[in-house]
TrEMBL record:
Record's protein name: Uncharacterized protein
Key words of the record: Signal
Organism: Pseudomyxococcus hansupus
Signal peptide location: 1-22
Length: 313
């Protein structure tokens, strides 16, 4: 019996490290979630009983499971958490749609718009945020000192979402991508299609059975998109309709980042397949509760002011 104790301990540890966290829905990691339904069945003798059956969740018009219960995170799970945004591309894009979606999960949003704050102000703002999103433009705004601050934030385990788009709208995306992940994006490929789940090693589509793609069987790729260059630091997430790598993620050594060549998904054809759910999933995943644990979220709930960044520069 003593010989079995290490095995039991190992199993217990593995179970405790699975993504069944309080912030996540039961559907976490499932592209096509199931739902339980109660139905009344009449027996041969005329009596009735209520039985529970499991069936695929109802689908929306694009083929994805309906309902926020099929997002990665529970509604309101991240109350008190702030997503900080360096938004350098702003044409016809005020971030209102992603902001409204993130609010469903409890996130507030703070943006520096058009210009970067001083490195000192950026560091102070990031101390009050759980993650940073960078939306690149065609002109570089970030200095080496800014990049140093962002790398410190990333190395401490806080999530970073790096957004670019078709050439030349990836100036800062590539600067930060090289510094954090050793990669870049390039090119200009027409997209404007919805892709499904990836079926083979070469074709277009979404990565199957990952927290980021919870509740997603179809996703709009963006209008015109850049292509991410291969890197050992990245795992492919979304291949576009042309087969090019549009989005990939880093999840190693307790650090998380997403590198994405299609920021038009954030404001153009927002109501097309899966965009709002994907944005919510990405923010929930980048909180990195698997590393920091529930205590981080509980601390934020006790003092929500701790997640309010410094005044906008």
């Amino acid at each position: 019996m003593r010989a079995l104790r290490p095995l039991f301990c190992c199993i217990a540890f593995l179970l405790s490290s699975t993504p069944a966290l309080a912030q996540y829905n039961k559907a976490a990691g499932e592209n096509a979630p199931m739902e339980s339904v109660l139905r009344t069945v009449t027996r041969n003798d005329g009596t009735q009983e209520v039985r529970e059956t499991v069936r695929p969740a109802a689908r929306d018009g694009f083929g994805n499971a309906k309902g926020n219960q099929n997002d990665l995170a529970v509604d309101g799970a991240f109350e008190g958490q702030t997503v900080a945004v360096l938004q350098f591309y702003t044409q016809d894009f005020d971030f209102s749609l992603p902001k409204a979606a993130l609010k469903e999960k409890g996130f507030s949003v703070f943006r520096w718009v058009n210009q970067a704050p001083s490195p000192k102000a950026l560091r102070e703002g990031l101390q009050k945020a759980c993650q940073l999103w960078i939306i690149s433009d065609s002109t570089q705004r970030l200095t080496p000192e800014h990049v140093k601050v962002i790398k410190e934030f990333f190395d401490a385990g806080h999530g970073v979402y790096i957004w670019g788009d078709n050439a030349p709208y990836y100036a800062d995306a590539n600067v930060v991508g090289q510094a954090l992940l050793g990669t870049a994006m390039e090119g200009n490929i027409p997209g404007d299609q919805t892709v499904g789940l990836r079926k083979d090693g070469e074709g277009p589509g979404l990565l199957r059975r990952h927290l980021l793609t919870t509740g997603l069987e179809y996703l709009y790729e963006g209008i015109t998109i850049a292509t991410i260059q291969p890197s050992q630091q990245l795992t492919p997430l979304l291949h576009g309709s042309a087969g090019n790598l549009v989005a990939a993620f880093h999840d190693k050594n307790g650090k998380r980042a997403i590198f994405d060549g299609g920021f038009t998904r954030l404001y153009n054809k927002w109501d097309t397949a899966g965009t709002a759910r994907y944005v919510k999933n990405a923010a929930a995943w980048l909180v990195n509760v698997e590393r920091f644990g529930d205590a981080v979220v509980r601390a934020d709930l006790r003092d929500t002011s701790a997640r309010k960044p410094a005044p906008k520069q």
